[in-house]
Amino acid sequence: MYSATDVIWVLVGTVLIFFMQAGFALCEAGLTRAKNTGNILMKNMMDFCIGTPCYWLIGFGLMFAGGGALIGGFDPLIRGSYDFGTLPTWCYAIFQTVFCATAATIVSGSMAERTNFKAYCVYSAAISLVVYPISGHWIWGGGWLSWLGFHDFAGSTCVHMVGGVTACLGAALLGPRIGKYDRDGKPRAIPGHNMTAMALGVFILWFCWFGFNGGSTAAMSSDDDMVLASLVMFNTNLAAAVATLVAMIFTWIRYGKPDVSMTFNAALAGLVAITAPCDCVTPVGAFFIGLVAGILVVFSVEFFDKIAKIDDPVGAVSVHMVNGIWGTIAVGLFSDGGNGVGKGLFYGGGFRQLGVQALGFVTVAAYVLVVMFIIFKLIDKTIGLRVPAEVEIDGLDSHEHGLVSAYSGFAITDMTNADMDINENTDLGESDADKATQRQMDAAVKVVESPAPEGIFNTGMNKVSIICRLAKFDALKTALNNLGVTGITVTQVMGCGIEKGAGEKYRGVEVDMNLLPKVKVEVVVSKIPVDAVIATAKKTLYTGHIGDGKIFVYPVARVVKVRTGEENYQALQDVE
Fold first, then answer.
1. % of the chain beyond a pLDDT of 90
2. Which of 53, 60, 491, 536 is the most interior residue, by most CB within 10 Å?
C-alpha cells in the first residue's frame, strides 16, 4: 500500500534536487569566463534533458533490476525485481532521475571552456545510460556492495564521487586551458567573471541539499521517519556551515585574506562530505566531518592546480571527488550505529565498517575510471574531445552556439591573458601566410594609410593601429616583440565590416549586425620601419578568411613622455 505522506515527501525532495541544476549552472558560469557563459548554461540544461530519456530507457532498469530489465519504461519488470516500499515505481523513478542528472552535471565544471559541445552531449548520455546506473546498482539497487554493508545514505560515492572521478579524468585527458600554465609550468590565475552568479549558485545548492539528503529518507509517515529526517537536515546544515567557516579562516591565515571562491567551494565540500553519513552520525560527528572538509578542499585545489596540473576551473574535482571519498570514509569513522549502519572506528566498531567503505569507493572509482577512459578515448578519436585552439581563445559561445555575448548590451572585458604562452594545447595549424601569395595577403589584411594633415611636417613617427581576431593576439604580440616593438596598447573591441559578421540568428531571427569580438593593437614607431611592422602583422594575421583584420597608419606630430618630459623619438625609448 502506498503512503501519501511518503510520496509527497519524496516528490518535494525531487523538485528541490532538480533545482540544483540551476545552482550548478550559476556556480559554474560565475567561475568561468564571460565568453563561455552560454556554453556552460547549455551543458547544464542538456545534462538533465539528455539524461532523463537515457535513464528512463536503460539506466533505471540496470540500476534496480540488475540487468533483468533494460527498459525502465515497463513497470511490471521493475516491480518484480526491486521493492520500492510505500512508493509507486514512478515516484521513485523521478527521484532517482534527478540524482542521475546531478552526477552528470558535475563533469561540466571541470571540463569547462575547452570541451567540444557534441562530445559533451555524448559522454553525458553515457553517464546516464550505464556509468551511474551500474555503480548505483551495486550500492542502492541490491548489488554486492549493499550486501557487504556499504553505506552511502544520499550519494557521497554513488553520485558525487562518480561525477568527480569522471570530472578528474576528463580534465586530465583534455589538458589545461590555453594560458593556464607558463613555460615553466607555473599556474596562472584565470578568475571567474561573475562572483555574484557563483555565490547565488552555491546558496541555491545549499538550499536544495535539504531535499537531496532529507528526501533520501524516502519516508515521513512515522515518528521515527520524522526524527531521522530532522537529524539528516541538521547534520547537513552543520557540516556545510563548519566547512565554510573553517575554509574562510584557513585561507585568511594561508593567503593573508579570506578567499571568496575557495570559501564558497568549501560550503559545497561540506555538503558533499556529509551526504553519505548524515543519517548515522551525531552532530558532533557532523562538526568534525565539516571541519576536515573545509581544510581538505583548500589543499586539494592547490594540489590539482600546482602539482597534478589538472586544470579544474570550478574546483569540481576537489569538491565532489575528494570530499565524496572523505564522506564515504567518514561513515567508517563516525557512525554511531544509527539507522542500522555498522558502528565506526571512533564508536567501538573496529575496522570492519571502515574497510567496507574503503573497498566501496576504491572499486567504484576503478570502475568509473576504466569505463569513462574508454568512452572519452572513443569520443576523442571520432568526434574530438577538445575544441581547436582558435575556438577556445575566442570563446565557445560564438563558435559553438553563434552567441556573440551572453551579456548583450553590457561591456564585459574578457581579454586573453596578456602573457599567454603557446603551449602543447595550442594548435592553430600551419601558418596560412606561408602558403599565400603577396596579393592574397594584401587583399585579406588591408592597409589604410592616412596622409599628414596640411601644415604638419613629417616627424618620422607613425602610429600603426591593427584590428585583428582575438585568437591571433598572442601570436601578433610575440611577432611584434621579436621585431623590436616593445610598447603596445591593447583594447578589446567589437567589430563588424561590410560582411556584417557571420549572419547568426537569435531565436530564429537573423541578427542585423553581428558584432564580432576583436582586438585593437596600437604601436607608435620611429626607428623601426612602418613597412616592417605592416609586413609582420600581415604574415601573422593572414588566414584567407573574412575578418582577418585591417591595419591603419597615421602620422604622429608629437609625443611627450609624462614622467620625464622627453619628446618625440626620445619619448618612445622605453629605458630608465
1. 64
2. 60
CA separation for the pair 258, 348 (Å, rounded): 38
Domains annotated for the chain, with CATH where assigned, are: 4-392 (1.10.3430.10), 430-572 (3.30.70.120)
* CA–CA distance, 161 with 541 (Å, rounded to integer): 45
- How far does CA 71 lie from the centroid of its chain? 32
Count helices and strands in the chain by DSSP H and E runs: 22, 7
Query: How big is the CA angle at 559 (ends 555 and 560), to the nearest 5 degrees?
Result: 170
- 138: which 3 cell numbers? 551495486
The crossing angle, in degrees rounded to 10, of helices 37-54 and 117-126 is 30
Residue 102, judged by CB atoms within 10 A of its CB (0-12, 13-18, 19+), counts as buried
pLDDT digit string (tens) for 78-91? Answer: 444 567 888 998 99
pLDDT at 566: 85
Q: Three-class SS string for 368-389?
A: HHHHHHHHHHHHHHHCCCECCH
The C-alpha atoms of residue 399 and residue 397 are separated, in whole angstroms, by 6
- If we measure between CA atoms, which residue out of 316, 364, 331 comes closest to residue 162? 364
Give per-residue pLDDT as tens, 120-146.
Answer: 999 999 999 999 999 999 999 989 999
